[in-house]
């Protein structure tokens, strides 16, 4: 019998994604002050991995016999980490900063279990088209991407903001890279189609 599977996230997007692989899991919201990690100097890659690990560890400490999956996502724009905007004004500002530029969307995943720790990082390169302020404002009003790193929902109207996207796993853009995660879960003996 497999151990209990827990998703260390309050994100409805990650819940929906994980349910593509398995149906029997429990979402648990990790209580982590992300802002304290952003204040420490680190590369965007290190920050994403550190946040994913901390979210996973907080929940694993409560359920040490479970398999716990945690993830974090941020945008690397010119080596500056952009997270969730939180407000419409901040979302428009992020979009304008990325307008006409390429950025990296970094999605870090950590899996903790009694068998050990696995972590990996998915990188997606996105070329945003040049946006006018009115386009950015209209987009934010329509999609309300206030809880999305980089201020866009690629699975909705946000796709229209881009000229090109290069990725090994499109699901990483939505918050959880399922190709690599499905292999990790199979290695941990979960039945993943």
How would you sum up this structure, described in words?
The structure is a single chain. The protein is an alpha/beta fold and 193 residues long. The protein has a single domain, classed as Maf protein. It is 33% helix and 26% strand. It has helices spanning 12-18, 34-39, 44-62, 88-98, 133-143, 178-187; strands at 5-8, 26-28, 67-77, 80-82, 102-113, 116-128, 162-166. Strands 1, 2, 3, 4, 5, 6 and 7 form a 7-stranded mixed β-sheet that branches. α4 packs across α5 (133-143). It is elongated and about 50 Å long.
Name a few traits of the molecule.
seven-stranded mixed beta sheet, 6 helices, elongated, Maf protein, 33% helix, 193 residues
Task: From the 3D structure, determine the CATH topology.
Answer: Maf protein
Strand tally, please? 7
Mean pLDDT: 92
Which structural class is indicated by helix and strand composition?
alpha/beta
In short:
The chain is an alpha/beta fold and about 190 residues long. The chain has helices spanning about 10-20, 35-40, 45-60, 90-100, 135-145, 180-185, and strands at about 5-10, 25-30, 65-75, 80, 100-115, 115-130, 160-165.
Write the SSE topology.
Layout: E1 5-8, H1 12-18, E2 26-28, H2 34-39, H3 44-62, E3 67-77, E4 80-82, H4 88-98, E5 102-113, E6 116-128, H5 133-143, E7 162-166, H6 178-187
Parallel strand pairs: 1-2, 1-3
Antiparallel strand pairs: 3-4, 3-5, 5-6, 6-7
